[in-house]
Specification:
Elements lengths: L3 H4 L3 E5 L8 H11 L5 E5 L5 E4 L2 E4 L13 E4 L6 H11 L3 E3 L10 H16 L3 E3 L5 E4 L4 E4 L7 E8 L2 H13 L4 E6 L8 H10 L5 E6 L5 H11 L5 E5 L4 H10 L7 H11 L2 E3 L2 H13 L7 E6 L2 H14 L2 E2 L3 H4 L16 E2 L6 H13 L5 E7 L6 H14 L6 E6 L2 H12 L4 E2 L2 H20 L7
Helix pairs in contact: 3-4, 6-7, 7-9, 10-16, 11-16, 13-14, 14-15
Bound molecules: acetyl coenzyme *A.
Length: about 475
Protein backbone atom coordinates (compact mmCIF):
# COMPACT_ATOMS: atom_id res chain seq x y z
CA UNK A 1 0.00 0.00 0.00
CA UNK A 2 1.17 3.51 -0.81
CA UNK A 3 2.60 5.76 1.91
CA UNK A 4 1.54 8.96 0.17
CA UNK A 5 -0.66 10.17 3.02
CA UNK A 6 2.25 9.91 5.46
CA UNK A 7 4.31 12.41 3.48
CA UNK A 8 1.71 14.50 1.70
CA UNK A 9 -1.46 14.44 3.79
CA UNK A 10 -4.12 16.95 2.83
CA UNK A 11 -5.53 16.93 6.35
CA UNK A 12 -4.24 15.94 9.78
CA UNK A 13 -5.98 15.28 13.10
CA UNK A 14 -4.02 15.43 16.35
CA UNK A 15 -5.73 13.14 18.84
CA UNK A 16 -4.71 14.40 22.28
CA UNK A 17 -4.04 17.93 20.99
CA UNK A 18 -3.45 20.26 23.90
CA UNK A 19 -3.32 23.99 24.49
CA UNK A 20 -0.92 23.48 27.40
CA UNK A 21 2.72 24.29 26.55
CA UNK A 22 4.99 21.50 27.75
CA UNK A 23 2.58 18.73 26.71
CA UNK A 24 3.36 16.50 23.74
CA UNK A 25 -0.06 17.21 22.20
CA UNK A 26 0.76 20.92 22.32
CA UNK A 27 4.23 20.58 20.79
CA UNK A 28 2.89 18.66 17.80
CA UNK A 29 0.21 21.32 17.18
CA UNK A 30 2.79 24.10 17.54
CA UNK A 31 5.22 22.43 15.13
CA UNK A 32 2.51 21.88 12.52
CA UNK A 33 1.53 25.54 12.69
CA UNK A 34 5.03 27.02 12.97
CA UNK A 35 6.58 24.90 10.22
CA UNK A 36 3.88 26.15 7.87
CA UNK A 37 1.80 23.06 7.07
CA UNK A 38 -0.81 24.23 4.58
CA UNK A 39 -3.39 21.43 4.81
CA UNK A 40 -6.28 21.23 7.29
CA UNK A 41 -5.40 20.72 10.97
CA UNK A 42 -8.02 19.23 13.29
CA UNK A 43 -7.25 19.16 17.03
CA UNK A 44 -9.06 16.34 18.85
CA UNK A 45 -9.53 16.45 22.63
CA UNK A 46 -12.30 14.90 24.71
CA UNK A 47 -12.81 18.29 26.33
CA UNK A 48 -13.86 19.95 23.05
CA UNK A 49 -14.10 23.77 22.85
CA UNK A 50 -11.48 25.88 21.12
CA UNK A 51 -7.71 26.25 21.30
CA UNK A 52 -5.32 28.94 20.15
CA UNK A 53 -1.88 27.86 18.97
CA UNK A 54 0.55 30.61 17.95
CA UNK A 55 -2.29 33.10 17.37
CA UNK A 56 -4.24 30.61 15.27
CA UNK A 57 -7.66 29.69 16.58
CA UNK A 58 -8.90 26.10 16.16
CA UNK A 59 -12.21 24.45 16.85
CA UNK A 60 -11.52 21.34 18.95
CA UNK A 61 -13.44 18.15 18.15
CA UNK A 62 -14.20 15.56 20.80
CA UNK A 63 -13.63 12.69 18.38
CA UNK A 64 -12.33 12.27 14.84
CA UNK A 65 -15.86 11.11 14.04
CA UNK A 66 -17.10 14.69 14.62
CA UNK A 67 -14.73 16.24 12.04
CA UNK A 68 -16.72 17.39 9.00
CA UNK A 69 -14.02 16.84 6.33
CA UNK A 70 -11.87 13.80 5.47
CA UNK A 71 -8.75 13.05 7.54
CA UNK A 72 -5.70 11.59 5.79
CA UNK A 73 -3.45 11.29 8.83
CA UNK A 74 -4.25 11.11 12.54
CA UNK A 75 -1.37 11.54 14.98
CA UNK A 76 -2.26 9.79 18.24
CA UNK A 77 -0.93 11.31 21.47
CA UNK A 78 -3.20 9.96 24.20
CA UNK A 79 -2.27 7.47 26.94
CA UNK A 80 -1.96 3.84 25.78
CA UNK A 81 -5.19 2.75 27.43
CA UNK A 82 -7.20 5.08 25.15
CA UNK A 83 -5.46 4.07 21.95
CA UNK A 84 -7.63 1.02 20.99
CA UNK A 85 -10.77 3.17 20.96
CA UNK A 86 -9.01 5.91 18.98
CA UNK A 87 -7.81 3.35 16.41
CA UNK A 88 -11.34 2.11 15.98
CA UNK A 89 -12.75 5.63 15.53
CA UNK A 90 -10.01 6.58 13.06
CA UNK A 91 -10.74 3.45 11.06
CA UNK A 92 -14.44 4.27 10.95
CA UNK A 93 -13.58 7.81 9.86
CA UNK A 94 -11.51 6.52 6.92
CA UNK A 95 -8.14 7.79 8.15
CA UNK A 96 -5.32 6.44 5.94
CA UNK A 97 -2.29 6.58 8.19
CA UNK A 98 -1.90 6.58 11.93
CA UNK A 99 1.36 7.60 13.59
CA UNK A 100 0.96 6.48 17.23
CA UNK A 101 3.17 8.54 19.53
CA UNK A 102 2.01 6.76 22.69
CA UNK A 103 4.39 4.45 24.52
CA UNK A 104 3.34 1.43 26.56
CA UNK A 105 3.02 -1.38 24.00
CA UNK A 106 5.44 -3.96 22.57
CA UNK A 107 8.43 -2.43 24.32
CA UNK A 108 6.94 -3.58 27.65
CA UNK A 109 6.93 -7.29 26.81
CA UNK A 110 4.64 -10.06 25.60
CA UNK A 111 1.32 -8.58 26.76
CA UNK A 112 2.17 -5.23 25.19
CA UNK A 113 3.12 -6.97 21.95
CA UNK A 114 -0.21 -8.79 21.90
CA UNK A 115 -2.17 -5.54 22.32
CA UNK A 116 0.00 -3.87 19.68
CA UNK A 117 -0.73 -6.70 17.25
CA UNK A 118 -4.46 -6.40 17.89
CA UNK A 119 -4.28 -2.68 17.08
CA UNK A 120 -2.52 -3.38 13.81
CA UNK A 121 -5.05 -6.04 12.83
CA UNK A 122 -7.88 -3.66 13.56
CA UNK A 123 -6.20 -0.89 11.56
CA UNK A 124 -5.55 -3.22 8.62
CA UNK A 125 -9.21 -4.21 8.66
CA UNK A 126 -9.96 -0.56 7.90
CA UNK A 127 -7.15 -0.27 5.33
CA UNK A 128 -5.18 2.01 7.65
CA UNK A 129 -1.36 1.97 8.12
CA UNK A 130 0.16 2.29 11.61
CA UNK A 131 3.49 4.04 12.28
CA UNK A 132 4.93 3.07 15.67
CA UNK A 133 3.72 3.00 18.36
CA UNK A 134 6.31 4.59 20.65
CA UNK A 135 7.45 7.29 18.21
CA UNK A 136 8.05 11.05 18.02
CA UNK A 137 6.31 11.64 14.69
CA UNK A 138 7.06 12.49 11.10
CA UNK A 139 8.62 15.34 9.11
CA UNK A 140 8.48 15.86 5.36
CA UNK A 141 10.05 19.17 4.45
CA UNK A 142 8.71 19.51 0.86
CA UNK A 143 5.15 19.59 2.23
CA UNK A 144 6.16 21.76 5.22
CA UNK A 145 5.03 18.97 7.51
CA UNK A 146 6.47 18.75 11.00
CA UNK A 147 4.19 16.49 13.03
CA UNK A 148 6.67 15.78 15.82
CA UNK A 149 7.33 16.99 19.32
CA UNK A 150 10.97 17.71 18.44
CA UNK A 151 12.55 20.97 17.27
CA UNK A 152 10.63 23.01 14.71
CA UNK A 153 13.06 24.48 12.24
CA UNK A 154 14.29 21.42 10.33
CA UNK A 155 16.48 22.41 7.36
CA UNK A 156 15.09 21.23 4.02
CA UNK A 157 17.45 19.01 2.04
CA UNK A 158 17.76 15.72 0.19
CA UNK A 159 18.57 13.26 2.99
CA UNK A 160 15.77 11.10 4.44
CA UNK A 161 16.29 9.87 7.99
CA UNK A 162 14.43 6.93 9.50
CA UNK A 163 14.86 6.37 13.25
CA UNK A 164 13.84 3.40 15.34
CA UNK A 165 14.88 5.24 18.48
CA UNK A 166 12.69 8.07 19.72
CA UNK A 167 14.92 10.03 22.07
CA UNK A 168 17.98 9.69 19.83
CA UNK A 169 15.91 10.65 16.79
CA UNK A 170 14.65 13.81 18.48
CA UNK A 171 18.14 14.65 19.65
CA UNK A 172 19.43 14.22 16.12
CA UNK A 173 16.73 16.56 14.80
CA UNK A 174 18.35 19.33 16.81
CA UNK A 175 21.79 18.15 15.82
CA UNK A 176 20.99 18.29 12.08
CA UNK A 177 19.93 21.91 12.54
CA UNK A 178 23.17 22.75 14.33
CA UNK A 179 25.26 20.90 11.75
CA UNK A 180 23.37 22.38 8.76
CA UNK A 181 22.29 19.00 7.45
CA UNK A 182 19.26 19.29 5.17
CA UNK A 183 16.53 16.66 5.42
CA UNK A 184 13.75 15.68 3.05
CA UNK A 185 12.02 13.35 5.49
CA UNK A 186 12.36 12.19 9.05
CA UNK A 187 10.25 9.27 10.19
CA UNK A 188 10.22 7.80 13.67
CA UNK A 189 9.20 4.13 13.40
CA UNK A 190 9.58 3.00 17.02
CA UNK A 191 8.14 -0.49 17.57
CA UNK A 192 7.55 -1.02 13.82
CA UNK A 193 4.30 -2.90 14.48
CA UNK A 194 3.19 -2.32 10.88
CA UNK A 195 5.19 0.13 8.73
CA UNK A 196 8.86 -0.79 8.79
CA UNK A 197 12.14 0.27 7.20
CA UNK A 198 11.41 -1.68 4.01
CA UNK A 199 8.02 0.04 3.48
CA UNK A 200 9.70 3.43 3.81
CA UNK A 201 12.57 2.47 1.51
CA UNK A 202 9.98 1.49 -1.09
CA UNK A 203 8.40 4.93 -0.88
CA UNK A 204 11.64 6.90 -0.72
CA UNK A 205 13.04 5.05 -3.73
CA UNK A 206 10.58 6.97 -5.89
CA UNK A 207 10.55 10.20 -3.91
CA UNK A 208 12.03 12.90 -6.13
CA UNK A 209 12.93 15.00 -3.07
CA UNK A 210 15.19 12.33 -1.56
CA UNK A 211 18.70 11.51 -2.84
CA UNK A 212 20.02 9.39 0.05
CA UNK A 213 18.54 7.49 3.00
CA UNK A 214 19.95 7.13 6.51
CA UNK A 215 18.51 4.60 8.97
CA UNK A 216 19.13 4.28 12.70
CA UNK A 217 18.22 0.65 13.31
CA UNK A 218 18.15 -1.61 16.33
CA UNK A 219 16.60 -4.70 14.77
CA UNK A 220 14.74 -5.96 11.72
CA UNK A 221 11.62 -8.08 12.11
CA UNK A 222 11.35 -9.31 8.53
CA UNK A 223 14.91 -9.74 7.25
CA UNK A 224 13.94 -11.07 3.81
CA UNK A 225 11.61 -8.12 3.16
CA UNK A 226 14.30 -5.62 4.18
CA UNK A 227 16.94 -7.26 2.01
CA UNK A 228 14.68 -7.32 -1.04
CA UNK A 229 13.86 -3.63 -0.71
CA UNK A 230 17.39 -2.55 0.23
CA UNK A 231 19.00 -4.42 -2.67
CA UNK A 232 16.67 -2.81 -5.17
CA UNK A 233 16.68 0.71 -3.67
CA UNK A 234 20.47 0.86 -3.16
CA UNK A 235 20.94 0.61 -6.92
CA UNK A 236 19.12 3.92 -7.24
CA UNK A 237 19.83 5.74 -3.99
CA UNK A 238 22.51 5.22 -1.36
CA UNK A 239 21.40 3.76 1.99
CA UNK A 240 23.45 4.33 5.15
CA UNK A 241 22.61 2.34 8.27
CA UNK A 242 23.71 2.74 11.87
CA UNK A 243 22.86 -0.64 13.35
CA UNK A 244 23.05 -0.45 17.11
CA UNK A 245 23.43 -3.43 19.44
CA UNK A 246 26.69 -4.62 17.88
CA UNK A 247 27.97 -6.12 21.11
CA UNK A 248 26.25 -8.91 23.06
CA UNK A 249 25.38 -6.59 25.90
CA UNK A 250 24.24 -3.90 23.45
CA UNK A 251 21.88 -6.44 21.88
CA UNK A 252 20.33 -7.08 25.30
CA UNK A 253 19.83 -3.32 25.78
CA UNK A 254 18.00 -3.21 22.42
CA UNK A 255 15.53 -5.86 23.60
CA UNK A 256 14.35 -3.68 26.46
CA UNK A 257 14.38 -0.46 24.40
CA UNK A 258 12.22 -1.12 21.33
CA UNK A 259 11.48 -4.80 21.94
CA UNK A 260 13.50 -5.77 18.84
CA UNK A 261 15.70 -8.79 18.45
CA UNK A 262 19.11 -7.39 17.61
CA UNK A 263 20.31 -10.78 16.33
CA UNK A 264 23.85 -11.88 15.65
CA UNK A 265 25.77 -8.90 14.40
CA UNK A 266 27.65 -10.78 11.70
CA UNK A 267 24.32 -11.69 10.09
CA UNK A 268 23.49 -8.00 9.80
CA UNK A 269 26.95 -7.23 8.44
CA UNK A 270 26.54 -9.92 5.77
CA UNK A 271 23.03 -8.72 4.91
CA UNK A 272 24.23 -5.13 4.50
CA UNK A 273 27.14 -6.21 2.32
CA UNK A 274 24.89 -8.28 0.08
CA UNK A 275 22.45 -5.43 -0.38
CA UNK A 276 24.88 -2.54 -0.92
CA UNK A 277 23.95 -0.87 2.37
CA UNK A 278 26.77 1.28 3.81
CA UNK A 279 27.13 0.52 7.49
CA UNK A 280 28.34 3.40 9.66
CA UNK A 281 29.61 2.90 13.19
CA UNK A 282 28.81 6.30 14.69
CA UNK A 283 26.39 9.20 14.36
CA UNK A 284 29.00 11.57 12.98
CA UNK A 285 30.21 9.02 10.44
CA UNK A 286 26.65 8.28 9.28
CA UNK A 287 25.73 11.94 8.85
CA UNK A 288 29.11 12.79 7.29
CA UNK A 289 28.38 10.19 4.64
CA UNK A 290 24.73 11.18 4.37
CA UNK A 291 25.73 14.79 3.79
CA UNK A 292 27.98 13.83 0.87
CA UNK A 293 25.67 11.19 -0.59
CA UNK A 294 22.62 13.45 -0.60
CA UNK A 295 24.41 16.47 -2.10
CA UNK A 296 26.98 15.22 -4.59
CA UNK A 297 26.78 13.80 -8.10
CA UNK A 298 28.27 10.39 -8.84
CA UNK A 299 31.93 10.40 -9.94
CA UNK A 300 32.60 9.74 -13.60
CA UNK A 301 35.98 8.11 -12.95
CA UNK A 302 38.47 7.19 -10.23
CA UNK A 303 40.94 10.09 -10.26
CA UNK A 304 40.85 12.18 -7.09
CA UNK A 305 42.72 15.48 -6.73
CA UNK A 306 43.56 17.07 -3.39
CA UNK A 307 44.15 20.83 -3.24
CA UNK A 308 45.61 22.15 0.02
CA UNK A 309 47.48 25.05 1.59
CA UNK A 310 49.04 22.85 4.26
CA UNK A 311 51.45 19.96 3.76
CA UNK A 312 50.39 18.27 7.01
CA UNK A 313 46.70 18.01 6.23
CA UNK A 314 47.62 16.97 2.69
CA UNK A 315 49.63 14.04 4.05
CA UNK A 316 46.84 13.05 6.44
CA UNK A 317 44.32 13.15 3.64
CA UNK A 318 46.66 11.05 1.46
CA UNK A 319 46.90 8.41 4.21
CA UNK A 320 43.13 8.37 4.46
CA UNK A 321 42.80 7.97 0.68
CA UNK A 322 45.17 4.98 0.76
CA UNK A 323 43.20 3.38 3.58
CA UNK A 324 39.90 3.95 1.81
CA UNK A 325 41.20 2.66 -1.53
CA UNK A 326 40.81 5.99 -3.33
CA UNK A 327 43.05 6.66 -6.34
CA UNK A 328 45.01 9.91 -6.34
CA UNK A 329 45.52 11.26 -9.85
CA UNK A 330 49.23 11.17 -10.65
CA UNK A 331 49.79 12.34 -14.21
CA UNK A 332 52.49 14.92 -13.50
CA UNK A 333 52.35 16.42 -16.98
CA UNK A 334 48.72 17.34 -16.43
CA UNK A 335 49.17 18.29 -12.78
CA UNK A 336 51.76 20.88 -13.80
CA UNK A 337 48.92 23.23 -14.63
CA UNK A 338 48.53 23.89 -10.88
CA UNK A 339 51.96 25.55 -10.80
CA UNK A 340 50.15 28.68 -12.00
CA UNK A 341 48.53 29.04 -8.59
CA UNK A 342 51.47 28.57 -6.25
CA UNK A 343 54.85 30.12 -5.44
CA UNK A 344 57.98 28.34 -6.73
CA UNK A 345 58.29 26.42 -3.46
CA UNK A 346 54.81 24.91 -3.85
CA UNK A 347 54.16 21.40 -5.11
CA UNK A 348 51.84 20.44 -7.92
CA UNK A 349 52.21 16.71 -7.21
CA UNK A 350 48.95 15.38 -5.86
CA UNK A 351 48.24 16.52 -3.09
CA UNK A 352 48.55 19.88 -4.80
CA UNK A 353 50.14 22.16 -2.19
CA UNK A 354 49.38 25.82 -2.83
CA UNK A 355 51.41 26.54 0.36
CA UNK A 356 50.60 28.83 3.26
CA UNK A 357 50.85 31.77 0.81
CA UNK A 358 47.52 30.81 -0.74
CA UNK A 359 44.64 33.28 -0.65
CA UNK A 360 41.11 32.72 -1.89
CA UNK A 361 42.28 33.70 -5.39
CA UNK A 362 44.77 30.80 -5.64
CA UNK A 363 42.12 28.37 -4.38
CA UNK A 364 39.72 29.73 -6.96
CA UNK A 365 42.16 29.21 -9.83
CA UNK A 366 43.15 25.72 -8.71
CA UNK A 367 39.59 24.58 -8.08
CA UNK A 368 38.31 25.88 -11.41
CA UNK A 369 41.17 24.07 -13.14
CA UNK A 370 40.42 20.77 -11.41
CA UNK A 371 36.68 21.03 -12.05
CA UNK A 372 37.27 21.69 -15.75
CA UNK A 373 39.93 18.99 -16.34
CA UNK A 374 38.49 15.88 -18.01
CA UNK A 375 40.82 13.45 -16.22
CA UNK A 376 40.21 14.83 -12.73
CA UNK A 377 37.01 13.20 -11.52
CA UNK A 378 36.64 14.25 -7.88
CA UNK A 379 38.11 17.13 -5.88
CA UNK A 380 39.05 17.45 -2.22
CA UNK A 381 39.83 20.98 -0.99
CA UNK A 382 41.72 21.25 2.30
CA UNK A 383 42.30 24.56 4.06
CA UNK A 384 44.25 25.40 7.18
CA UNK A 385 43.43 28.74 8.76
CA UNK A 386 46.18 31.31 8.11
CA UNK A 387 46.35 35.08 8.57
CA UNK A 388 46.23 35.69 4.81
CA UNK A 389 43.34 33.34 4.00
CA UNK A 390 40.00 35.04 4.57
CA UNK A 391 37.46 32.38 5.48
CA UNK A 392 34.48 34.25 4.05
CA UNK A 393 36.22 35.02 0.76
CA UNK A 394 37.29 31.40 0.52
CA UNK A 395 33.74 30.13 1.07
CA UNK A 396 32.44 32.56 -1.58
CA UNK A 397 34.93 31.52 -4.25
CA UNK A 398 34.41 27.82 -3.59
CA UNK A 399 30.62 28.19 -3.85
CA UNK A 400 30.82 30.34 -6.99
CA UNK A 401 33.38 28.13 -8.75
CA UNK A 402 31.43 24.96 -7.97
CA UNK A 403 28.10 26.45 -9.01
CA UNK A 404 29.53 27.89 -12.24
CA UNK A 405 30.96 24.45 -13.09
CA UNK A 406 27.45 23.00 -12.94
CA UNK A 407 28.21 20.84 -9.89
CA UNK A 408 28.98 17.87 -12.14
CA UNK A 409 31.87 16.40 -10.11
CA UNK A 410 32.00 15.43 -6.44
CA UNK A 411 33.62 18.10 -4.26
CA UNK A 412 34.28 17.87 -0.53
CA UNK A 413 36.05 20.40 1.66
CA UNK A 414 37.86 20.24 5.00
CA UNK A 415 38.52 23.48 6.88
CA UNK A 416 40.76 23.20 9.91
CA UNK A 417 40.77 26.28 12.11
CA UNK A 418 38.88 28.44 14.59
CA UNK A 419 35.70 30.50 14.77
CA UNK A 420 35.82 32.09 11.31
CA UNK A 421 36.46 28.72 9.74
CA UNK A 422 33.58 27.20 11.69
CA UNK A 423 31.30 29.87 10.23
CA UNK A 424 32.62 29.19 6.73
CA UNK A 425 31.96 25.45 7.21
CA UNK A 426 28.32 26.29 7.96
CA UNK A 427 28.03 28.56 4.92
CA UNK A 428 29.48 25.91 2.61
CA UNK A 429 27.20 23.24 4.03
CA UNK A 430 24.19 25.52 3.67
CA UNK A 431 25.16 25.84 0.03
CA UNK A 432 25.29 22.11 -0.56
CA UNK A 433 29.10 21.65 -0.49
CA UNK A 434 29.88 18.94 2.08
CA UNK A 435 32.43 20.53 4.40
CA UNK A 436 34.07 19.05 7.48
CA UNK A 437 36.43 20.23 10.23
CA UNK A 438 38.94 17.41 9.63
CA UNK A 439 40.56 16.01 6.47
CA UNK A 440 39.80 12.35 7.31
CA UNK A 441 36.09 13.09 7.58
CA UNK A 442 36.09 14.70 4.14
CA UNK A 443 37.96 11.73 2.65
CA UNK A 444 35.72 9.22 4.47
CA UNK A 445 32.67 10.92 3.00
CA UNK A 446 33.87 11.00 -0.59
CA UNK A 447 34.98 7.39 -0.12
CA UNK A 448 31.41 6.50 0.86
CA UNK A 449 30.25 8.03 -2.42
CA UNK A 450 32.78 5.92 -4.36
CA UNK A 451 31.78 2.83 -2.42
CA UNK A 452 28.15 3.28 -3.29
CA UNK A 453 29.02 4.10 -6.91
CA UNK A 454 31.14 0.93 -7.16
CA UNK A 455 28.32 -1.15 -5.72
CA UNK A 456 25.80 0.38 -8.08
CA UNK A 457 27.89 0.09 -11.23
CA UNK A 458 30.04 -3.01 -10.54
CA UNK A 459 28.32 -4.74 -7.58
CA UNK A 460 31.61 -4.25 -5.77
CA UNK A 461 31.14 -5.15 -2.10
CA UNK A 462 32.87 -3.01 0.51
CA UNK A 463 34.17 -4.57 3.70
CA UNK A 464 35.18 -2.41 6.58
CA UNK A 465 38.97 -2.70 7.08
N1 LIG B 1 -9.50 11.41 22.89
C1 LIG B 1 -9.18 12.72 22.78
N2 LIG B 1 -8.45 13.39 23.69
C2 LIG B 1 -8.01 12.69 24.76
C3 LIG B 1 -8.31 11.34 24.95
C4 LIG B 1 -9.08 10.69 23.94
N3 LIG B 1 -9.40 9.39 24.04
N4 LIG B 1 -7.73 10.93 26.09
C5 LIG B 1 -7.10 12.00 26.60
N5 LIG B 1 -7.28 13.07 25.81
C6 LIG B 1 -6.74 14.41 25.96
C7 LIG B 1 -6.58 14.83 27.38
O1 LIG B 1 -7.74 15.54 27.78
C8 LIG B 1 -5.36 15.71 27.37
O2 LIG B 1 -5.71 17.04 27.07
P1 LIG B 1 -5.20 18.32 27.97
O3 LIG B 1 -3.74 18.45 27.69
O4 LIG B 1 -6.00 19.44 27.44
O5 LIG B 1 -5.45 17.99 29.39
C9 LIG B 1 -4.56 15.20 26.20
O6 LIG B 1 -5.45 14.38 25.42
C10 LIG B 1 -3.40 14.29 26.60
O7 LIG B 1 -3.85 13.33 27.51
P2 LIG B 1 -3.11 13.14 28.91
O8 LIG B 1 -3.88 12.12 29.69
O9 LIG B 1 -2.86 14.44 29.56
O10 LIG B 1 -1.77 12.46 28.46
P3 LIG B 1 -0.29 13.06 28.40
O11 LIG B 1 -0.22 14.22 27.49
O12 LIG B 1 0.26 13.24 29.75
O13 LIG B 1 0.47 11.81 27.75
C11 LIG B 1 1.25 10.61 25.89
C12 LIG B 1 0.05 11.24 26.55
C13 LIG B 1 2.27 11.68 25.55
C14 LIG B 1 0.83 9.91 24.62
C15 LIG B 1 1.91 9.61 26.89
O14 LIG B 1 0.93 8.67 27.30
C16 LIG B 1 3.04 8.83 26.29
O15 LIG B 1 2.88 7.73 25.77
N6 LIG B 1 4.25 9.41 26.40
C17 LIG B 1 5.44 8.81 25.81
C18 LIG B 1 5.66 9.35 24.39
C19 LIG B 1 6.98 8.87 23.88
O16 LIG B 1 7.96 8.91 24.58
N7 LIG B 1 7.02 8.33 22.65
C20 LIG B 1 8.19 7.62 22.20
C21 LIG B 1 9.11 8.32 21.26
S1 LIG B 1 9.87 9.73 21.78
C22 LIG B 1 11.03 9.42 22.95
O17 LIG B 1 11.39 8.31 23.15
C23 LIG B 1 11.58 10.55 23.62
Amino acid sequence: MDMEELFNPESIAIVGASAKPGKIGYSIMRNLVEYGYEGSIYPINIKGGEMTIKDRKFKVYKSVLDVPGKIDMAVVAVPAAHVPQVVDECGRKGVKVLPIISSGFGELGEEGKRIEQQLVEKARGYGMRVIGPNIFGVVYTPSKLNATFGPTDIIPGKLAFISQSGALGIALMGWTILEKIGLSALVSIGNKSDVDDADLLDYLEKDKNTEAILIYMEGIKDGRKFMQSAKRVSRKKPIVVIKAGRSERGARAVASHTGSLAGADRIYTAAFEQTGVLRAFSISEAFDWGRALSNLPEPQGDNVVIITNGGGVGVMATDACEEEGLKLYDNLEELKVFANYMPPFGSYKNPVDLTGMATAAEYEGALKTALAHPEMHAVVVLCCQTAILDAKDLADVLINAYTESGRKKPLVVAMVGGTEFREAINVLNENGIPTYPEPERAIGSIAALYRWHNWKTKEQVWRRP
